Amino acid sequence: MISFIAEKKPLIEESLSRLVAMMPYNDDILRAVEYTLFAGGKRVRPILGVLVLEMFDDDCESHIDILSIIEIIHTYSLIHDDLPCMDNDSMRRGRPTLHIKHSAGFAAYIGSFMLESSLYILQELMHYSALSLERSNQIMETIDEHIGFNGMVGGQVLDMHLNSADNEIKIEQRYINMIELKTARLIELSIKTACILSGADELSCRALSVYASNIGLLFQIIDDYLEVIGDEKIIGKSTDSDFKNKKITAVGLMGINETEKLADRLYANAVNSIAGFEERGRHLIAFAEYLRYRKN
Ligand code: GRG
């Protein structure tokens, strides 16, 4: 990982510890939350938010906990995604998944608890911060829009039905629509939340939005790619899940070479979309490069 990205990781870990300490529950539940949350996730989403805050010279410290809420939401989605009724995966972040360690019911419950308590804590954080009511409302609405049926959950539903015969729309297009919702929306959420927190101007927000949707798609395409060419030990999860579940993936649809070309195009689009920021955009450009060539 590039050094300036690695430097941000401890800040996110500290922030997540603060958030878990605010969770209103008993030891067993909090231990299960910690088991999945502190297991070596890359922290891509909050780190991206921090990079955007820095672009606007925002005082990161007071906003970092709000961005880390997105990491908790992301972790809830991984717990539910791994369940036997979904992808039925047994390894995640280098550890047995929560339903393997406990039970499917308990894991489903912990995932829901993480979602619900993260939104509760977010309300508290915003209430006691200097953030205006208008910006706080904007953040809540943006989260709602990106994680619900028009966002991540909707994408997961599309993913579950991608194999069914709806032949009106080409499968390649349906796949792109699905990953736009399932994966890109949460990455977009980090960047949009950081824009709201730092009061970024309209033009900058629009440019960053284009950047976000391109790296969001790039992220999932590389995820698919690593399932085929990646190293299980480095990735920390099994690499036969898509095959086992007969999932439609970028590599399955277009092969390895075309997947690489698509990843290159998305990377180039992302970089071009923020050219107007010149020197200030250098960390986001380096981040896009990291996402393009990541190994885990
Ligand atoms: C109940 C229909 C329904 C939905 C619940 C399960 C779910 C919500 C959504 C699935 C979203 C999902 C898991 C998308 C995949 C995104 C992805 C590529 C995750 C991997 O993220 P990384 O690589 O993981 O950042 P780490 O471990 O580094 O954080």
Could you characterize what this model shows?
This protein has 14 helices and two strands; from the N terminus they run ααααββαααααααααα. It is mostly helical. Helix 1 (3-21) crosses helix 4. It is globular and about 50 Å long. The mean pLDDT is 95.
Short description:
The protein is an all-alpha fold. It is 72% helix and 1% strand.
Give the topology, please.
Elements: H1 3-21, H2 27-37, H3 44-55, H4 64-82, E1 91-92, E2 95-96, H5 98-101, H6 104-127, H7 133-147, H8 152-160, H9 171-198, H10 202-229, H11 232-235, H12 241-244, H13 250-273, H14 282-293
Antiparallel strand pairs: 1-2
The chain binds geranylgeranyl diphosphate (GRG).
Ions, cofactors and other bound molecules: geranylgeranyl diphosphate
Radius of gyration: 18 Å
Indicate the proportion of strand residues: under 5%
Strand order of the largest sheet: 1-2
Output the structural class: mainly alpha
Mean pLDDT: 95
Please report the distance between the alpha carbons of the first and last residues. 10 Å
Total strands: the figure is: 2
What is the number of helical segments per DSSP (H or I, 4+ residues)?
A: 14
How do the helices and strands follow one another from N- to C-terminus? HHHHEEHHHHHHHHHH
Assign a percent range to the helix content: over 70%
Low-confidence regions: none
Main sheet specs: 2 strands, antiparallel
Task: Describe the global form.
Answer: globular
Structural key phrases:
mainly alpha; 296 residues; single chain; 14 helices; binds geranylgeranyl diphosphate; two-stranded antiparallel ribbon; 2 strands
